[in-house]
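To the team - NAP complex, inputs and output below.
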Amino acid sequence: MSSRIPAVIIGASGYVGGELLRLIAGHPNFELAAAVSDSVAGKTIGDVFGHLATAFLKDTFVAHSDWLDQVDTDSDLALFSAAPHGASAAVIAAAIDACEQRNINVHVVDSSADFRFARQEDWEAVYKAQHGAPQLLDRFICALPEHADNIDVAHVGHPGCFATASTLATVPLITSRLTETDVFISGVTGSTGSGKSPSAGTHHPVRNSNFYAYKPLAHRHAPEVAALAETASGRKTNVHFVPHSGPFARGIHVTLQAKATKPVTEEQVRKVYEAAYADAPFVQIVSGTPRLKDVVASNQCHISVATDGDTVVVMAAIDNLVKGAAGGAMQWMNRLWGLPQTSGLDAPAPGWT
Ligand SMILES: NC(=O)c1ccc[n+]([C@@H]2O[C@H](COP(=O)([O-])OP(=O)(O)OC[C@H]3O[C@@H](n4cnc5c(N)ncnc54)[C@H](OP(=O)(O)O)[C@@H]3O)[C@@H](O)[C@H]2O)c1
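Output:
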């Protein structure tokens, strides 16, 4: 019998779900128990994701109604959700209930936005909808693994892609007190950030060879970054965020600017980041400026800094689907099971994508 922990992915037919499948295919400690999708139930994984055909020769997607049959009672379970926000929480609540009835020891990591706020009213104010499982909020935390040494809950809400890059860039600066607590962040994301279903604003002819801002100073990720930064730094942070659509498929690049509280040198700022992430295997403080091709398809975040003495700039680049979603979720899942956080995640970026 395998000693690997069974893993189930809700939303397995989507872009993040596909990346979770790819990471599980190479993971030494987890094995796929069920790839859950109603729309492609019965199809092989290779039918939907051609690039994964050889990794999962016979596995088929299973419907929501059937996945529990693939998990033994009294077993362990790593449950990933890559369902849309607004739907994920209720699906997770039903899964946790079912696991409790079968004495299955489950840890959940949710890639959706449903567990990104500790308080129901904060989530409902941002998402303008009723929360799907408020009874579970105190059983989840939302944080980046780099900013939370110890946690005392069983489940995690992953912060998401723009928030991962923005929060990794923001927290050391706010903690250092080298700048004021207003941070101005300009971010650019690739088209996979919008998921697999095309819409008028995300369709290839619109995004390809194009570049534009959207929801300037009004995006839902700004309050999420502010909450994460405040929890990690202990200081109230004002996040002014302008997202952009970039003409590429994968990757996120953010540029943060903040006003120095007194004249500061680049060396001072760099030392703050090097110290903050000295023990973080997935965060590198690079010379020059971060480049998407150095991180895309990996779980790495590259950060660099600059200053003219008065204004501080911090740049960060990640892969939205890996460090910003599936890889970040896997990093947390490793920790929840007491595994090295790098387990299954240490492949470098391919460089040419
Ligand atoms: N794309 C990114 O870069 C990124 C980054 C960070 C976080 N996220 C978050 O991760 C989640 C997945 O994103 P994605 O880009 O992979 O989206 P996607 O490509 O649209 O895939 C969404 C998946 O959710 C499933 N789904 C749809 N409605 C559902 C429901 N009511 N209950 C359960 N499952 C349902 C779909 O599966 P079936 O319809 O086949 O069942 C589909 O496989 C989202 O919450 C997103 O906000 C995405």
